[in-house]
Amino acid sequence: MQTKPDVLIIGGGLAGLTAAIHLSKKGMKVILIEKSEYPRHKVCGEYISNEILPYLLWLGADVLQLQPTNISKFEFSTQNGKTAKTKLPLGGFGISRYTLDHFLYQKAVANGCTILNETVNDVAFSNDEFTVTTPNQILSAKIVLGAFGKRSNIDQVLSRNFITKKSPWLAVKAHYTGDFPDDVVALHNFNGGYCGVSKVESNIINICYLADYATFKKYKNIEEYQQNVLYKNKHLKTVFENNKPVFDKPITISQISFDKKQPVENHILMIGDTAGLIHPMCGNGMAMAIHSAKIASELILDYHNGTIESREFLEKKYTKEWQHNFGKRLLMGRILARTLTNKTITNTFTGIVASLPALLSGIIKQTHGNPIAIKK
Fold first, then answer.
1. How far is it, in rounded angstroms, from Cα 213 to Cα 211?
2. How far apart are CA 152 and CA 256, in angstroms?
3. Predicted structure pTM score
4. Are strands 30-34 and 7-10 parallel, antiparallel or unpaired?
5. Minimal CA–CA distance to 37: which of 133, 90, 109, 142?
6. Is the dihedral of CA 375, 307, 143, 6 positive or negative?
7. Average pLDDT value for the chain
8. Cα torsion 56, 44, 103, 289: sign
9. Helix, strand or coil, per DSSP, at residue 197
10. Residue 366 neighbours by CB distance under 10 Å
């Protein structure tokens, strides 16, 4: 096996797999390291804006063949049951990470990417080259992409600022069967968090919520927490009581940080959630992950062919492009999250946007992008 590729990608989620497909499509030798096997479930909202469809089609990854749901409407509710509804400006689709990640994995392998089922223990940079260590081997590459998700041991290895701070957030996700509209993505507020509900392929309902740990830890288990806290919102109570869980138990992730992250650290170009996590209030992290992979891949190709003359310029250009495309979205997410944790403000806000759907649609536009232009 070749242990010195053109590009080494750490992490095989949406961003890592998309970059692997893009770079290999253009003839680069890519090794991707992912600790988990495919297919697998991941904690995720599983709604994607249509903004990334042109890019996925260009990659040869036609996700429409996976028969996702077509989502065109958004619904928001407060804990006391007030609702606001609007049409999504671009629309989107619902697809499970179980299906989508496996689909992209197969595309990457078909393109000639090498995918290693390993854990990365260390990443070092010296003499303009990276050395990446796993329990079984040592690899080297000129370029490393960090796609290792929301929180990883690699964040600790790199001494990233956010990893030293405790975060109050945890997330819970499960699939259900039952009755829910195919064309709606809903976000329901409850004391200490938000719950997203939407359909994915095969008539499955995805329910994923972000919870404040201080509230969560007062209860013995997830079921008790849901019944005592989430059920206070009548919409959520209806969703949980009228649908049957598919999983034996929900999957969870803790210590989720929405602190600002740097898109380049230790010369590693960070993509997806590794570069910055958008709050569920904005609900478009999957599209951002895929878009960030496109930005990084195009710049890496320019660096590889000499259009970008130095690593320093590559890093500066990627940081600029990342901020240009996602900086305002992440800021809006943080503002909305802080604002709507106040019960009085949330109720007032919902009352206003319920009578002015165009206002809600305008806010959504601030957290979504335009259809991605393809660089030929």
1. 6
2. 11
3. 0.93
4. parallel
5. 109
6. positive
7. 89
8. positive
9. strand
10. 14
CA 368, 300, 95, 233 dihedral sign is: negative
**How would you class 359 by CB atoms within 10 Å of its CB: exposed for 0-12, middle for 13-18, buried for 19 or more?**
middle
Write out pLDDT tens, residues 347-361: 676 667 666 666 666
**Domain made up of 7-165+257-367: CATH architecture:** 3-Layer(bba) Sandwich (3.50)
pLDDT digits (tens, 9 = 90+) for 112-160: 999 999 999 999 999 999 999 999 999 999 999 999 988 888 988 888 8
| pLDDT tens readout for residues 187-203 | 898 888 889 999 999 99
From the number of C-beta atoms within 10 Å of its C-beta (0-12, 13-18, 19+), residue 65 rates as exposed
Place of tokens 């994915």: 200
Taking the C-alpha atoms of residue 297 and residue 294, their distance in angstroms, rounded to an integer, is: 5
SS3 at position 127: coil
Count of beta carbons in the 10 Å neighbourhood of residue 108: 28
Q: Mark out the alpha helices in the chain (DSSP H runs).
A: 14-25, 53-59, 97-110, 153-157, 213-216, 222-228, 234-241, 285-304, 311-322, 328-339, 343-355, 357-367
Q: What is the pLDDT of residues 19-52, one digit of tens each?
A: 999 999 999 999 999 999 999 999 999 999 999 9
| Contact (Cβ atoms closer than 8 angstroms) between residue 175 and residue 204 | yes
What per-residue confidence (pLDDT) applies to 129? 96
